[in-house]
Amino acid sequence: MFTAYTADQIRTAERALMATLPRGTLMLRAATGLAAVCAAMLPRVYGSRVVLLVGSGDNGGDALHAGAVLARRGAGVTAVLAGSRVHEAGLAALLAAGGVSRKPGGGDDVRRAVEGADLIVDGLVGIGASGALREPYAGLAETAGHAAAPVVAVDVPSGVDASTGRVEGGAVRAAVTVTMGALKTGLLVDPGAVYAGRVELIDIGLGPYLPGPDVAALTRASVRATLPRPAAASDKYRRGVVGVVAGSDQYTGAAVLAVGGALHAGAGMVRYAGPSRPVGQVRARWPEAVVTELDEPSIDDVGRVQAWVLGPGLGTGRWARELVLRVLATDVPVLVDADGLNVVAHDVSLLRRTAPVLITPHAGELARLTGAARGDIEAAPLAHARAAAAELGVTVLLKGSTTVVAEEGEPARVNGTGTPWLATGGTGDVLSGIAGSLLAQGLGARDAGSCAAYLHGLAGRIAADGAPLTAAAVAEALPAAIRSLDEESARSRLP
Ligand SMILES: NC(=O)C1=CN([C@@H]2O[C@H](COP(=O)(O)OP(=O)(O)OC[C@H]3O[C@@H](n4cnc5c(N)ncnc54)[C@H](O)[C@@H]3O)[C@@H](O)[C@H]2O)[C@@H](O)CC1
Ligand SMILES: Nc1ncnc2c1ncn2[C@@H]1O[C@H](COP(=O)(O)OP(=O)(O)O)[C@@H](O)[C@H]1O
Ligand SMILES: [K+]
């Protein structure tokens, strides 16, 4: 499991570590790691042009010291000193190594340097930042955004809140973020994750001083360890039976896709219940599902299940409302998605039950549930998922380009295994089926949600392979995704 921390948690740990070391040691460790990543991104260091955007704090100090290392190896390094102050020791090191400095007010000079660079290092602000970038930082971040060279962000992309991932105004878009000591939450959740690019973690010895994490991200190894596997003596009932109440005569595909997700995620059996049209399609597509055609909105004749998937394509009329009430009245875990959420939005107290509830909204569905504005949720998904989990008393899996799973009293889980190709109709229905299948196999709501998001993202990558995918292909790629957890070569990478 990868773990990530808020700026305050990092600062506290850093103070404790720093007290044990000679002054300046940590920054040199950080800068050495940063310089190595920069050097690896250049075809060759000697003769290349590197521009450092340097703020007034230690983030700028990291950039200057790394710049000194690159200058000693023959790079032409220009530091743009954007702050009213500068890290003196860092600047002295850079100048001694042959680097030069500029002030951002110096006409077109700085713009030309940035545009002509082979590599740009963003050392404007790190975990000491507060609020939107002020000038001249904001202008420099924008100039860097127009440059052809890749940007390496020091610790966090400037403009991204390290603790929350929030971006007020503009922020630096990094190809790579070199983060010091430990991952920051803002690098793993939207919108910050989008600005961070690839994240490289530099070990500066902070580990023993870190508290419990703010958020965690599953790895291949942790998913492999969590995922239920059939034992020698397993039978289909003991492996877990999942019931799917989804689809309507209008939305038949949602039923097919949710059942497809459930079938490929390891449940011993999938029971599907719905009206005649989706029943016909589920039967035709998935002969292995046990299907009950409903004349009435009742689940009395469906048979026993260990968890329900409720909602994709269900509609929101009387039929749907009746089914939602009946499924939520059972005593097994329930996953509520899509129209199931639209129905309970009228009375969220329906979600209060003894057995676990996992809800899987996208930002629009969460907005209908909590009354928050969709834009506010998208700007701060982690905070909104946490607030909804506390307010509704359920586990919340909030979908987006990164997915957040929040449960009160536990570190949130974040997932970045997906691909933008997943942004296509029906992939959410597949995710519901997967997570419901894992609930039926006995995982708790947080594990079921986060493992489902992980596998769904991985299956999305396999299904897409650089081209458009279909939701059905994501369901069918699940076995390959699960198999890949065991591959020796499939080393866990930072998200
Ligand atoms: N504390 C430590 O032990 C270590 C810190 N390191 C580096 O130090 C950084 C933190 O350094 P600092 O605490 O000096 O803080 P920063 O360098 O992140 O920023 C501090 C200064 O930036 C300015 N500022 C803040 N918000 C701004 C905004 N929105 N617009 C424009 N200017 C703004 C303020 O003048 C503030 O004093 C880390 O992110 C990391 O890069 C590393 O060297 C590792 C060791
Ligand atoms: N840009 C993206 N990058 C990665 N995953 C994405 C992106 N956009 C959407 N997804 C994923 O695709 C799925 C879409 O689900 P949802 O919004 O419910 O769509 P639908 O209702 O059409 O099934 C979610 O799992 C979401 O996390
Ligand atoms: K930075």
Strands, helices and their partners?
Layout: E1 2-5, H1 7-18, H2 25-41, E2 49-54, H3 58-72, E3 76-81, H4 88-96, E4 100-102, H5 108-115, E5 119-123, H6 137-146, E6 151-154, E7 176-180, E8 183-184, H7 185-188, H8 192-196, E9 198-202, E10 215-217, H9 220-226, H10 236-239, E11 241-245, H11 253-264, E12 269-274, H12 276-285, E13 290-293, E14 307-310, H13 318-328, E15 334-336, H14 338-344, E16 357-359, H15 363-370, H16 374-379, H17 381-392, E17 395-398, E18 403-406, E19 412-415, H18 427-440, H19 445-464, H20 471-476, H21 478-484
Helix pairs in contact: 2-3, 3-4, 11-12, 11-18, 14-15, 18-19, 19-21
The structure holds ligand NAX, adenosine-5'-diphosphate (ADP) and potassium ion.
The site of ligand NAX has 27 residues, from helix 1, helix 2 and helix 3.
Quickly give the structural class.
alpha/beta
- Count of folded domains: 2
Count the beta strands.
Answer: 19
What sort of overall outline do the alpha carbons produce when their principal axes are compared? elongated
Query: What does the radius of gyration come to?
Result: 25 Å
CATH architecture of the largest domain: 3-Layer(aba) Sandwich
Q: What's the CATH topology label of the largest domain? A: UDP-N-acetylmuramoyl-L-alanine:D-glutamate ligase
Just give the CATH class of the largest domain. Answer: Alpha Beta
Give the % helix.
40-55%
Averaged pLDDT: 96
Any low-confidence stretches, pLDDT <50, length ≥5?
A: 489-495
Strand fraction: 15-25%
In order across it, which strands form the biggest sheet? 8-1-10-19-18-17-16-15-14-11-12-13
Largest sheet, if any? 12 strands, mixed
**Helical stretch count?**
21
In this entry the ligands are: ligand NAX, adenosine-5'-diphosphate, potassium ion
Can you say what the CATH homologous superfamily of the largest domain is? Ribokinase
